[in-house]
Amino acid sequence: MLSFNYVILTIIGCAVVTWLSRVLPFILLKKFDLPKTVNEFLSFVPIVIMSALWFSHLFISNTGYLPDINYEYLIASAPTVLSAAITKNLLVIVLVGMVSLALLRLI
Predict the structure, then answer these.
(1) Dihedral of the CA atoms 71, 74, 79, 84 (nearest 10)?
(2) pLDDT at 8
(3) What whole-number distance in Å separates Cα of residue 76 and Cα of residue 83?
(4) What is the per-residue pLDDT across 59-77, written as a single tens digit (0 to 9) for each?
C-alpha cells in the first residue's frame, strides 16, 4: 500500500506541473513580441480546439463501419452554433451548449 506522503507529494507534483505548463507560456510571451503572422495563427487555436471537441462527440465510431451521428449532440449544437455566431463569447457558447444538452437529457 502506498504511503500517504507519497500520494500527497504526487498530487502536489502533478498540480505544479499542470500549473507551470499553463502559466509559463504566458510569462515567457509577455517579454517577447511575436510577429503578426504568429499572432494571427495563434488566434485560430481556440476555434480549432472547440471544433475538435465538437466533432469528436458528434460522431460515434464503430469499428468496421462508417461513423454514426450522435443526434443528441447534433440537436444541442444548433443553439450553441447560433450563440457563437451572435456573441462570439466563449463563455456564452459553452454555457449555451451545456444548458441545451442538459435540457435535451432532461426531456
Answers:
(1) 170
(2) 93
(3) 12
(4) 888 888 888 999 999 999 9
Question: CA 67, 44, 75, 72 torsion: positive or negative?
Answer: positive
For the chain, the DSSP string reads: ---HHHHHHHHHHHHHHHHHHHHHHHHHHHHSPPPHHHHHHHHTHHHHHHHHHHHHHHEE--TTSPPEE-HHHHHHHHHHHHHHHHH--HHHHHHHHHHHHHHHHH-
| Cell output for 72 | 443528441
% residues pLDDT > 70 (the chain):
98
